[in-house]
TrEMBL record:
Domain Chalcone/stilbene synthase C-terminal: 227-361
Keywords: Acyltransferase, Transferase
EC number: 2.3.1.-
Source taxon at top rank: Bacteria
Name this protein carries in UniProt: Alpha-pyrone synthesis polyketide synthase-like Pks18
EC class name: transferase
GO terms of molecular function: acyltransferase activity
Amino acid sequence: MSKIIAIGTANPPFCHQQTDIMHFMLEANNPDEKTKKLLPILYHRSGIDTRYSVFPDFSLPPEQWNFFGNHSSIPTLEKRMALYNEAATNLSIEAINNCLQNTDIKEITHLITVTCTGISAPGIDIFLVQKLGLSPNIVRTSINFMGCYAAIHALKIADAFCRADASAKVLVVCTELCTLHFQQSNDVDAVLSSTLFADGSAACLISSEKNVKGLEIKQFYSQLALSGQADMAWQLSSTGFLMTLSNHVPKLIKQEIKQLLDNSLQKLNLSAENITDWAIHPGGKNILEAVETSLDLNRNNLSKSYEVLKKYGNMSSPTILFVIKEMMNEIFATDFDQSKQRNIFAVAFGPGITMESVILEK
């Protein structure tokens, strides 16, 4: 049985207050009067206090902006990708080092890299092999452009590797620089995205090694809400990646999440009462509230998700691993042998609309 052995996380050096980002948006976009009144309401209701970025611009006065400048110098896709390759690699290494504190990196047999905010060939997987001194024969897999649910998809692939080879030690690293794709636009999708997204990285070690504590991977289950394809999307443009994110997404998740949970539990002959911990991807405050209502949960059940949202915002794929890490820290803070069994239901959402879930057991 494969298990999550460790999770390490990392964020860029620039931590921005949500209110400072709001003032940046007001300066950068010069919105009309309606949007000027709407922005403070959206930011106040976001449930986010701070977010991290590879840029200092969001907390600086306009004359000190370095990357974004003004409408006459909107960064090109090429400029954004050049910065991504350098910054994402360094951030990934920091998360990996935090993850592998008790593991020799030379023992890693498989590397799975996950991102939807940068793409190139050679990619981040090659850069990591070179900079970390990994074996040139390491098995590499890249998961690109899946969005916020991609970490769970990566766990599914890691689990398959471990089931096929009992000696496998799989390193998953999810790194997203969402703020790299800030668009100087008052389009409703750009405005909504500006309230939520942030930068971060999470690395996760999965193996079938016995006599090592961890969260056992019990069951994966995914489901598509195809009626929502137009409500969440990620498109390439000459000035970066364009995010489509409608306010209909929480409603769709509210309609579909109960069936997803029931179908997943049925495969393990479990009921909702058997779930002790809920790791819900904090794609936004409205999404967490929709899950609460649909599954008859309360805010305390989702406390770790709300806390990650408050401190970090939505970092896309690493975010669910930030939540699971918080749970692992709490669960294993006491004596491993004496602690009771815990069942974690983890779920993340992304374009499609895709709902990807995993049940973990301690």
